[in-house]
Specification:
- This protein is elongated.
- The longest helix has 19 residues.
- The chain is α/β, with parallel strands linked by helices and 356 residues long.
- The relative contact order is 0.11.
- α3 runs parallel beside α4, α6 runs parallel beside α8 and α10 packs across α12.
- The chain folds into 2 domains: 254 residues, TIM Barrel (Alpha-Beta Barrel), CATH 3.20.20.70; 95 residues, no CATH class.
- It is built from 12 helices and 16 strands.
- GO terms for molecular function: catalytic activity; iron-sulfur cluster binding; metal ion binding.
């Protein structure tokens, strides 16, 4: 559901064009529904998509690999590491120009004048404030932001039964001239599942979804009720958008830039390739046999540690003669076809053996 002009950060997000920068896992808010993974939650670590940020080059490289048109800075609370967040924004703007759209998420409790002035000064385009259950905190944040040059919005989860919280935040955003209110479908994650169950929330009746039952109804009921009373954009974002739309489109953008000559890209944007796993022997000897005896093009053969990678059809075609290949290369071999994400960590999605 969208009523009004779709926020630019959202437009780029659903196209898979936003680099996701996890500034830090540190946050003083302690929301019981926080979806951040246990690996990152509370830890002072930084990532650009799945890539750990150890230098400015890591940040820029990841943006280049996905042809990013913007970035979203998230956490944790990026404002607990304000200098880091400012440096990230400055680096991206210097590298990609002023049109590279950057938005940042921050809890209302962290919104303070000095921080906002720094973010404004370095060129932050859009600030998304996570409202507090305390209306006084939200009003104080709105007052600080009233004269900001950035696009402003509140962004919050749709907690079943909390329609009044959404209504209150929508009216406050309208009162202070904010541009939008985003309401996200609440979902079960590894880090919040126990607390959600303790509060007797259930999953929707769908094996493919982790959404919380009643969350969508709460969002749509509240936004419909307040729609005629405010002039700001009202936007409801279902949980499926993150995985089925945003993530899928992002990996498709990345795949065409990271796939090597021997790797193929399937319709979902996953990398598909053949693997000869060398159990004993020298992988270079196997590569030599493939190139010089079996005449596999050299650019289709890639040695990675104990693995020799190649086109998937090459492994398929050699499945019936693996024993001959082992004898010629003096290697013990296992053969696989794998599908993996084109991300920095190259997470394997599917692997199946090829036997002769």
């Amino acid at each position: 559901m969208v009523r009004g002009a779709f926020p630019k950060g959202c437009r780029l997000c659903v196209c898979g064009a936003k680099l996701v920068v996890f500034v830090t896992g540190v946050c003083n808010r302690g929301c019981w529904y926080c979806p951040v993974s246990p690996r990152k939650k509370g830890s002072d670590v930084s990532f650009a998509n799945e890539r750990p940020i150890r230098s400015e080059r890591d940040l820029v490289k990841e943006a280049e690999l996905m042809d990013a048109e913007g970035a979203s800075l998230t956490g944790g609370d990026p404002l607990t590491r304000l200098e880091r967040a400012v440096n990230i924004i400055r680096t991206l703007k210097d590298e990609f120009g002023d049109d590279f759209h950057i938005h940042l998420y921050a809890p209302a409790e962290s919104v303070r004048e000095g921080a906002i002035e720094e973010l404004d000064g370095v060129g932050l385009d859009e600030l998304r404030v996570h409202p507090s259950p305390d209306s006084t905190v939200n009003r104080r944040a709105a007052e600080v932001l009233e004269d900001s040059g950035m696009d402003l919005g509140f962004e919050m989860p749709a907690i079943p039964g909390e329609e009044n919280w959404i209504l209150e935040v929508a009216k406050l955003a309208d009162e202070y001239g904010f541009d939008f209110l985003n309401v996200n479908e609440l979902e079960f994650t590894e880090s919040n599942a126990e607390e959600l169950r303790r509060r007797r929330f259930e999953r929707v009746d769908d094996d493919l979804s982790d959404a919380v039952a009643g969350s969508e109804r709460t969002a749509l009921t509240a936004l419909s009720e307040v729609a005629n009373d405010v002039g700001i954009t009202l936007h409801y974002c279902p949980s499926e958008v993150k995985d089925a739309v945003q993530f899928r489109k992002r990996i498709k953008r990345m795949a065409k830039n990271v796939a090597r000559d021997h790797e193929e890209i399937d319709e979902e944007g996953l990398i598909v390739k053949g693997i000869f796993e060398v159990i004993s022997g020298d992988p270079e000897d196997l590569a030599d046999v493939l190139i010089n005896i079996l005449e596999v093009p050299e650019e289709w053969v890639y040695v990675d540690g104990s693995r020799v990678e190649t086109k998937p059809f090459v492994v398929d075609e050699l499945a019936d003669v693996l024993s001959d290949l082992e004898e010629a290369s003096r290697c013990e071999i296992r053969a696989w076809i794998i599908r993996e994400y084109p991300t920095w960590d190259r997470t394997v999605v599917e692997r199946w053996p090829v036997r002769g």
